[in-house]
Structure formats: structure tokens, C-alpha cells
Amino acid sequence: MINAREWPVRLIYILMAVTLAISLMITGASVQKVMASPGLSEWSRVSAPTTDGWVLTPDSVIVDYAVTDDGAAAYAILYSYNTSQFHLLKSTDGAATWDDIMGALEEEANGDIGWLVDVATDAGNDEFVAVALEMTDLSVHVFISDDGGATFKDAGEVEDNGVYFPDGYDVSDLEVSQEVGSNRNIAIGGRDNYGDAALFRCTITGDSATSWEGATDYVGWDDDGGFTSIFLTDIVFSPSWETDKTILVTTVADYGPYYVHLQCGSWGTTPGWNDYSTLGIEAVPIIEDVDIPIWLADFEASGIAGITVPSDYNSKDTNARVLWVWVNYYDEYEDDYPACVIVRVDDDSADPVGPMGQIEDGELWLTNVSYKGTIDEGEAIAGVLGTGTYDPVHGSPNELITECCEGVQVYRNDGVRNMDICCIRWADACKPPTGTFAMAVSYVGEDKAYAVSLWGFFSPYDEDAWSVSFDDGDFWSQLSLIDTHIDYLTDAAVSPDCNKTMLVSANEDSGCECDSVWLKAENLAGAPEYSGRWLRTWCGHLEGPPGRDWELGLLRLAPEETNGDNVYLFDYATSNVYWNNEETLACWDPIGSTVLDEIVDVALQDADTLFALDRYGDVAMFDDDEWEEAVDSEVELGHTIAVWGDHILVGGDEGEVSYSDDGGETFALLEDVPTIDGWVTVAFDTYFDTNNVIYAATDEDDNTGGIYRWVIGESESWTNLHAEPLECDIGVDDGDELYDVVDVVFTGLVVDRPSNPFTSADNGGVIYASYYGYYDGHWFTGVARSLEREVTINMTCVQWDFLHVGLTIDVERFDGLPDALKICGCLTPDSNTRLFAIDGWGPYDYYENEYGSVWTYEDCYAKTAPILASPADGATIRANRHACVNHRFTLEWDHLGDTSAYDIQIARDADFTEGVVNIVFYEPRLKKNKAASYIVAKGTLSCGVTYYWRVKSAKDQTGQVIHSWWSEPRSFTVVGGGG
After folding, report:
1. Per-residue confidence at 429, pLDDT binned at 50, 70, 90?
2. Are 478 and 465 in contact (CB under 8 A)?
3. Span 467-522, pLDDT tens digits
4. Is 197 exposed, middle or buried (0-12, 13-18, 19+ CB in 10 A)?
5. pLDDT at 16 over 50
6. How many helices (H) and strands (E) does the chain have?
7. pLDDT value at position 792?
8. Where are the beta strands (DSSP E) in 481-581?
9. CATH code of the domain in which 880 resides
10. Could you report the per-residue pLDDT of 654-675, keeping only the tens digit for each?
11. According to a count of CB atoms within 10 Å of the terminal CB, is the N or C end of the chain lower?
12. How many angstroms separate the Cα of 542 from the Cα of each of 446, 505, 707?
């Protein structure tokens, strides 16, 4: 079991007083069209980091924690300043989420809890947990549970013959042994009411506890009186407890200067210490005649000295009595600055591991050291106490507090041989875990480790968290218990395969003011236990535009990658750019621009090459490792940029669009988009390499935006695609009535990928454009969608569907800069498209995710069409011989999933330019075979004529007007000869 100690509340006051276009090998239309499955199409909120499951814990501190060996289960003590309450939390999913089990503890304690001191669990059985409490009368009790915290029992006050802990601040460590023969031992240590080292023991059977015994009364303690320990700092039960019944402790003796000893006890049939234990050795001197920061005992006694054991330690074998003890002290030869030493103990001898084995040459203070491996070979990680150093003469302990957002450093070493370090120096983490003070670390798997930031009480929202590393401690992500604040979400990015969602959040003025990048993968290949969980993978300061009081971090992905491995983060209107090549789960490489000062948009040509657009229209390329000289794009003010191979589009202000076909070496302005005063968002068509089509969407001040098309090399003016919501169902529902409105602006523009079997170069891909407007005191928003560029029969809203169902009046608008809309999916003919957009810039509700949210919409109809059933293609329909008109007959087609209404056309020609029947939003009868049908009334059609008919979905059961593609047409001929 790994167990870290808390930093008591008393020191809160002591220190306060002292003072974060894909290229697919897929063809276009195929002969046999494979269609995506239709389903309900409506907007829904994307799950985002919230306080649910204790992922975010704003204005809180982690007091203590304990984990099982495999890290699957964990316990934590959390103090919330918002509620002035302690919480006992349990996780069974690798510390990703937590449940509060405090209620059962409070019930057993009858409400007499002062504060929670320490928590420990069985290394191999998380159902057993022990919690040390200071009661309201200052006495220290231990409560135990053998059912995972569902119920607790009081093991009584920790006291023996008038010796006890004066209060909870004097408790240093609580540990639980393995279960052997249905029995467990609990050990709790620190400093007693006489000012001496204290260690108490009780035995647990099930949930029954024996009386507490003062274990320092066992013969041999302090070498049977050879010295006097004033404090016990750390407790470890031997990994071989089942056979050797050995307990190891570190103690501090005061002779003016201080001495630290390792004391070895055997708690078998006849308990004893040192010479009187089964080891038969004296207490091992670790360090002597030094000045130790004994004041750390008021924080965390294992911040003075601690023990680390290999997995094969066994006191019954003199060759297997090898371990480390580390000590923090003042270096008298370096002006009493902080220093530490790691000592290798072999049986009864102790020697420093050597200069290479000392972290940062021993010139800092440690929180703890965790070892993974055997005596022969292993790896280690070490957590540092804040900055690790301060000036004890001229400074104050506040110097130990790290700079906000920088985190607390963790060191790692994978070159440990024979519990010595001879070949590889300790390396610091490229991205440390977040927090500001004490970082405790724990190996919990082959490459996996936890880091827990303890007692970060120096300001609200100072980024204390439970962090995880999947690479032996080099890169740390925050899992849960994250003491941060989110003002608003600034951007979302989704891998083309829709597996990974990434978010950027801004924290303007709370606590450390750290901004963040978050990652959630539905299938996290490297750590499947965290699939579907949010990880914070970047923490830092976004500067934001000069002279503005807001930040805006934006994400861009490599177009040729379906999995979103290469990610670029840029700080809007600054020169700051960061690169991560492992889906944000690797160290971020700062590649800030050397040629542009105010980057407003970035587009990737491929994973190694990006083009950045400056506020003043300059474009510069970053290629692998350097920035090229900036080139004037000819637009006066830059807004958006899009890249397709060597082709580059730049959208500016007042309708300006420029184009380059030589990789950005030169640009030429196209004719202005028809707009008065609006920003332009640009995009390439799905089939640009064949049809040379580009699109532009405008965001105008007067809410009269539009969407336009241009063919490179052919067009002389922009073609208006008439994305106008007049008479279309795009309105805002205020609960009483649905308002239909006309004027909107467009803020984002994306086009689907070439896997759609219904699209082609002639038509172009499916277009999606986010929009918003204002009507009758309310904002409304959604996404406009167009399947077809050409319309043969005039039908209401046939070209554009305005997707808004599921959005409420509380959703203000999709207006993120510079492009508000993201897309994923469509990688295969049968995969649906998904859209993502953020509801404004804030505020974000990080408690319930009820506003400022990320929204998603699955387009279930962009790759499907009804299949006609009868009459058969080329069939004949009987006609009345006298009037020469049709008899009544029925058209049937396979019903599409959740469709509630269809459009039906009958025409005299296969191109449907000569329409005869044009029905919109027809709600069909459904037959038992799930076929939809429409009855063509008698006399509708003339005899002697061949007709063509087709059907498409027009409305979903949600009420959303959303069209599918037209079915493949069939023909029939009305012939005479009937009665």
C-alpha cells in the first residue's frame, strides 16, 4: 500500500501569516450506395469537465490519500473551503471519479468529528479502509470499515496507559498491513503527549479491533534506550509481512543537532525492535549531526524522512534487507539551504546512493520517493516539496510555493540497479503535475503512476489535483480533484474518427488563473481504463489579445490523420503556438512564431506544416522546425485561413478573400464577397481537387450574412447559395410559440469528406455553417445545412435545413472565433457526420454543464435516401378508358428510421423539371411491414404518359426539418384499358 500524509490546517494560518482537409483513400459515389443508419437528429450537450464525480473540486485541498497496489481503487480526504467541510472520498475507477462516503463515517462518529487526519487501505483489498480523526474533544480515534466505507466502526481512542496524541496535528502516518489469517495490523505514529516518538498498534479481525498498544514499549525501541526519538516520521509494513511480520519506521532524535534512524521491528509472537527483533540488528543510523526542518512536522512528518522498499524485501533473508531511506535537512555548507539525501540501507549498513543517485545533487526537499521493482533492478519517481528550496535566513517558507500553473516537479530514474544509481541521473518531468506545494507520488502499474498535490491552501483554485502519468512520470495529466476554475470554453477539436474530443477552457481571474486543455477519448488506447473520462493535458497562461481582458486558446489537427495525434494549440492574437504529437498526451513543444505577432487563425497542410494568419493579413509557414518569412495575403485584416495542399484561402474583413496556388508564396484577391461589413470564413469543397470550388460565409454587423460559392479559374463573381431562412423552420422557441426569423449571420463553415456515396464533384460536398441571430429579445442559433447545390422543382427550404432542435432559448449563440463549427465522422460510407459548437464564450457552468456548453449534432440523413418499393420500375398503371386518367393507386417505400414526414415528387421527365405532383412534409401511413405509402388519387395523372417519382425524408420525429437525399427515381406509365 502507498499512503501519503496530510499537511495540517494549523499551517494554513502559519504560512498565510508569513505570506493549462483530411486526405482519405476513398472514392466518391459508388455504384452500390451504402447508407448510414438514420436515427434521431437533435442537438445535445457534450459531457464536459464538471464537479460531477469530483473531477473539478474548486477551492479545495487534498489532505491525504491511499491507493491499492494496482491503483484501481483509492481513498482521499478532501477539505472544501466553499462548504467548510471535510469529505472522505472513494474511487473504484482509477481515481477518475469519486463517491463521497463521509455519511457513514459521520453516523458512526455521532457528529463529533473535528477533522480528518489520515486515511489508509489494504494494498490488496480496497474493501478495508482506516481513517484517523481528531474528534471535537481533540482526542484521536481510528475508524475502520471492511465493506468499502458503507459502514464504519470506531476502533477507539488511540491511547495506552496515559500516552496518546495531543491532537490530530501530532499524527504523522497511518498504515494497514496485509491480511494474514483473517487478521490485519494497523499502525499509527507521530509524537505523543510527552513529546516523544509515538507508535500505536491494534489488530483487526473483520471489523473488530483489539485495544490499542503503545508499540514503543516493546523491548529494543530506540536501541533499548540508547537514544530518545522525539518524532516518528514514516511507517512501512514489509512486503513479506505474511512471513516476516516486519515493520519499518524512521524516527528523529534530538541531540541539539538531529539524528535520523531506521528502526526495524518484528510483530510476531514476541514483538520487539532492532536487536530484540528477528532481524537482530541495532537501529540503523541514516544521518546524524544535521539541522532538520523539524517545523515540517506541523505539515507532514514524512516531509522530514521516509522509507522506500523494493517488492522483494524480506527481513528473514539478510541479502534481501535492502531499501532506501531519504531525509530532508539544511546544508550547513551551503548557507543552510534545503538539502536531501537518499541512503541505501543493506541490513545494518547505510550509505548514500552516490552523487548520481541524489536528485538535483541533493539541493532540494523531497515529499516522498516511490520505487517499482526488485532489489536487483527497478525504477523510481520522487515528488518535490514545492519549489524544493528557499532562503532560510532572508526568505520565508512561502518561497516553497511554486509559480502558478507551473506545477510541482517530479523526478524519475529508470536506471536503478541493485538499489543503487550508478549510470543514469534523475530526469525531471517534461510536464509536471499541477499544484503549488507538496507533490506525493505513487507507482501503480508497469508505466503508470499517480501524483497527488497535498495541502495547496495558499489561494483558491491553485490547481491542486490528482494527476496520472502513463510514461513513468515524464508527462502528467490531471484526472480528478482538480482545484481550478473555468470561466468559459474557448474551442473544441474532434478527431476525424470522432474518438477524441479536446477542449480549451479559460480562467480569467480566479486563483492561479490557469487556462487548460482537456482530452476525452471514447477509446483511449494507451490507458483503456480512462476511456470516456476527461483528462487535463495542458495547464498554463493564455495571454489573449493586446489590450483585451479575455483569453482564447484554439486547437488545430492534422488533416491527414483520422485519430487526432498531432495537435496544435495557439493563443489567439499572440505569437504563442504549442505542438503536441501524441493526442495531447505528450510534452508540448513551444513553437511560438518568430515572424507574426498576432496570429488569428492557423490551418495545417499536414502534421508537420502549418500556415498561420496574422491580424493584419500576413501569412507565414511553419515547416517541421522553423518559421518562414511572412507573405502579405492582400487582405487588409485577417480572419480565417484554409489549406488544401499548395492551395490557400484567406478570409478577411468587408468581404475580402484571397487565394494562393503556390503554397503561400504569392496571393491574389478574388472579387469581394457581396457584403457590406462582415468577416469572411472560407472553406474548400470536398472535391476541390476536381471541381475547384470554394465557399465563403459572412458574419455581418446587421445580421444579414450569406453563403457563397466560387469556382477557381472560372468564376467572375460569387454565386449566392441563398442560405436564407425565410419561411424555414429555424426559429427560437420561447415556450409559447415558435418565431420564424429572417436575418442571421454565419460564424463557421465546414464541408463533409469524400466518403459520402451521394455526393460528387458536380454537386459538391455537404455544407454546414453555424449561424445565429437575434429576435424579440432573444438570441437563437444553430447550423445551416445544404445537401444539394441545384434545385429542379421549387420547394420551400429545399436547399437549406436549419438544424436547431434540441437547442433552447438558454443557448445564446454559436459565435466562437474565428470558426465556430467543427466536424467529425463521414470517414466511411455508413458513418454519420457529427457537428460540434460551443455556446458562446461563457460563462460555463462547471457544476451542471447547463450553459456555456459544447453541443453536438449527429446528422443521420446526409448519407441516406429512401428505397422505393412499389410500383416496380417501369410498371404500368391502369387508367380510366373514358377519361384517360389514372385509377387510384399506391406508392410505397421503405420507411427511414425516425422520419416523420417526407417530400414526394412526380414529374414527366427524369430530371424532374416538369413537375406534376410536389408534396412537402407528407406524414405517411405506415404498414405492418414498416413500409411508408402515399395514395395517388384517381384522376391525378393522364394516360399515355410515362411518369417519374421519387421520395426523400423531410422531417425527423424530433420535429427537426432535415432532408435526406432523393431516392433513386422510378418510372411508371399510365395506360388505358381500365373500366
Report:
1. very high
2. yes
3. 999 999 999 999 999 999 999 999 999 999 999 999 999 999 888 899 999 999 99
4. buried
5. no
6. 5, 74
7. 53
8. 488-494, 500-506, 515-521, 534-540, 553-557, 567-571, 577-580
9. 2.60.40.10
10. 899 999 999 999 999 999 998 7
11. C
12. 35, 10, 32
CA-based nearest residue to 544, from 814, 812, 817:
817
Which residues on adjacent β-strands are paired with residue 767?
751, 786
Domains of the chain: total? 1
Q: Is the pLDDT of residue 29 over 60?
A: no
The DSSP output letter for 359 is G
What pLDDT is stored for residue 13 in this prediction?
A: 29
Q: What is the pLDDT of residues 861-903, one digit of tens each?
A: 999 999 999 999 999 999 987 889 999 999 999 999 889 999 9
DSSP-based three-state secondary structure for 137: coil
Q: What is the pLDDT of residue 791?
A: 57
- Please say if the pLDDT value at position 196 is more than 80: yes
Give the other-Cβ count within 10 Å of 977's Cβ. Answer: 10
969 in any annotated domain:
yes
The amino acid at 710 = W
Rounded Cα gap, residues 867 and 893, in angstroms: 6
What b/e readout covers 34-56, taking b as 16+ CB neighbours within 10 angstroms? Answer: ebbebeebbbebbbbbbeebbbb
- Please report whether residue 627 resides in a domain: no
User: Residue 964's closest CA among 44, 42, 41, 43?
Assistant: 41
Q: Please, are residues 742 and 727 in contact by the beta-carbon 8 Å criterion? A: no
Q: Contacts by 102-105 with C-beta closer than 8 Å and gap 24+?
A: 104/145, 104/149, 104/150, 104/151, 104/152, 105/131, 105/133, 105/143, 105/149, 105/152
Place of cell 502513463: 470
- 135 Cβ contact list (under 8 Å, min separation 6): 109, 112, 113, 114, 141
| 589 falls within a domain | no
In sequence order, what are the beta bridge partners of 833?
825, 859
Give Cα 31 distance to the centre of its chain.
42
> Which helix (H) or strand (E) segment is 707 a member of?
strand 707-711
Q: How far apart are CA 371 and CA 311, in angstroms?
A: 9
Query: Grid coordinates standing for 72?
Result: 484501481
Q: Distance (Å, rounded) from C-alpha 498 to C-alpha 821?
A: 14
Q: Residue 773: which pLDDT band, with cuts at 50, 70 and 90?
A: confident
Beta bridge mates, 453: 439
Nearest to 309 by CA among 324, 294, 329, 320: 324
Rounded to the nearest angstrom, the gap between the alpha carbon of residue 490 and the centroid of all alpha carbons in its chain is: 14
What residue numbers bound the domain in which 895 lies? 868-978
Through-space distance between the first and last CA atoms of the chain, rounded to whole angstroms: 92
Q: Is the pTM of this model over 0.85?
A: yes
Query: From the centroid of its chain, how far is CA 771?
Result: 28
CB 687 within 8 A of CB 760: yes
Q: What is the pLDDT of residue 795?
A: 45
Looking at residue 6, what is its pLDDT?
34
Task: Give tens-digit pLDDT for 250-302.
Answer: 999 998 899 999 999 999 989 999 999 999 999 999 999 999 988 877 665 46
Q: Which of 550-564, 720-734, 906-920 has the lowest mean pLDDT?
A: 720-734
Altogether, the residues listed in the chain come to a count of 979
Q: d(Cα 782, Cα 801) in Å, to the nearest integer?
A: 10
Q: Is residue 888 part of a domain?
A: yes
| CA dist., res. 381 & res. 443, Å (int) | 8
Among 670, 654, 877, 862, which residue's Cα sits nearest to residue 767? 862
SS3 of 14, please?
helix
Encode burial over 238-249: b for 16+ CB neighbours within 10 A, e otherwise. Answer: bbbbeebbbbbb
Q: Exposure of 161 by Cβ count < 10 A (0-12 exposed, 13-18 middle, 19+ buried)?
A: exposed
Mean pLDDT taken over the chain: 89
